[in-house]
Amino acid sequence: MTALFSAREKGRARRCLFGPVDHEELRRDLDLQITKIQEADTKRWNFDFEAEQPLSGEFNWEKVDSGSSDVHPSYMLGRFECISGRSNILKPVPVKPVDLKKTRQAGDANRA
């Protein structure tokens, strides 16, 4: 089956339908779109996400201790630095390890 698949793949034509890609122009366009989105989000939420500072506006932001019971566990997950750093490689921020055995046991207990 593998030989048949590879023979079929060799016979297929590959075309560049839209011409060559100008990677510099694409990067500039993407950076411009990201900047527009960030500006819109800053206005919408009256929060400077790059400086991580609240701005005056419709919302009143309060700092909450990360250990507080008011913080949902999903907010304790790591985040990727690819947007703020504009890196080509995703670099996850380290987070506290999860014990999978305990998680599975808790899930089994909830199903019972």
Order of helices and strands: HHEEHH
User: Cα distance, first to last residue?
Assistant: 45 Å
**Average pLDDT over all residues:** 74
Largest sheet: 2 strands, antiparallel
Percentage of residues in DSSP E strands = under 5%
How many H/I helical runs?
4
- Percent range for helical residues? 40-55%
Overall number of strands: 2
Shape annotation: flat
Q: Enumerate the strands of the largest sheet in spatial order, edge to edge or round the barrel.
A: 1-2
Uncertain regions spanning at least 5 consecutive residues: none
Which structural class fits the helix and strand makeup? mainly alpha
What is the radius of gyration computed over CA atoms, rounded to a whole number of angstroms? 23 Å
Task: Please explain how this structure is put together.
Helices cover 44% and strands 4% of the residues. It has 112 residues and is mainly alpha-helical. Strands 1-2 form a two-stranded antiparallel sheet. The chain is flat, with a radius of gyration of 23 Å. The two termini are 45 Å apart.
List keywords for this structure.
112 residues, two-stranded antiparallel ribbon, 44% helix, single chain, 2 strands, 4 helices, mainly alpha
In short:
The chain is mostly helical and 112 residues long. 44% of the residues lie in helices and 4% in strands. Strand 1 and strand 2 form a beta hairpin.
Topology:
Elements: H1 2-11, H2 23-45, E1 47-48, E2 53-54, H3 82-85, H4 100-111
Antiparallel strand pairs: 1-2
